[in-house]
């Protein structure tokens, strides 16, 4: 099979008998798995992708969701893939199968079916499913990584769940911090150098769970910079923040307490400026962090020296 493309290899496979799963050698299945799990640039036609699904349904049905998430099979008919997964679910049900069904339902334009599938498991179990198969949230095409339709759907309907899922991918070494930042920005189409609120939500969530001093310092600086930027420009978050100042204080050791005068000033602000007040209070409790002083001084010193 050396030198042959996957499509050329598949053309040599006979699928006239659908009941002979044993006829596929372990070496052949291993080869297909290796290619399909790699982020290759080879995109199979709809017919060839269907052939791959038929092979794995007969030989390795538990691998079906992973095969469907491969960039090689992105041209597969979603209705046919969904029918295969329904058969697999009857034998080897799993949260990954269900999440893959939800993704296929979105490709078919069936949001109700997608929601039904997402309601089948608790959110924390679904987060584990994304850890097992991260390609449910991000897709690779021609060397470029982008969010999937399922990720965009979650951004619109369950932003907190999406942030928790991205955080889990990062904590399980499935996504680097810089990669997570770029990924979240790609979920939005806004122009300019603005930071979407969902990215601020991610930084705040990561700060709650992180204990690496260098990462905590970086997060403090990013958050402080964003709070100050919005306060100076009188900008409001593009979406409602997932955590209030009180939430951060109660769940994170990296924040101090709100000064009484800040609380008093916030109480005088009209309802339309409450989000700006949140930025002010978050900035203030961040400033009280002992770690923050070790962040701001080195950064400001280097910038002034430069």
Number of strands: 2
Please state the CA-atom Rg, rounded to the nearest Å.
24 Å
Strand order of the largest sheet: 1-2
How many helices? The count is 17
| CA(first)-CA(last) distance | 57 Å
Bulk shape: elongated
Subunit organisation of the chains = single chain
Summarize model confidence as the mean pLDDT: 83
Q: Which structural class is indicated by helix and strand composition? A: mainly alpha
Helices and strands, with pairings:
Blueprint lengths: L5 H6 L14 H12 L8 H14 L4 H5 L9 H14 L3 H13 L3 H8 L4 H10 L5 E4 L2 E4 L1 H9 L1 H13 L5 H10 L10 H13 L3 H21 L11 H7 L8 H9 L5 H14 L2 H16 L1
Antiparallel strand pairs: 1-2
Helix pairs in contact: 3-5, 5-6, 6-7, 8-10, 9-10, 10-12, 12-13, 13-16, 13-17, 15-16
Short structural description:
By secondary structure, the chain is mainly alpha-helical. It has helices at residues 6-11, 26-37, 46-59, 64-68, 78-91, 95-107, 111-118, 123-132, 149-157, 159-171, 177-186, 197-209, 213-233, 245-251, 260-268, 274-287, 290-305; strands at 138-141, 144-147. 63% of the residues lie in helices and 3% in strands.
Question: Which terms would index this structure?
Answer:
306 residues, mainly alpha, two-stranded antiparallel ribbon, 17 helices, 2 strands, 63% helix, 3% strand, elongated, disordered C terminus
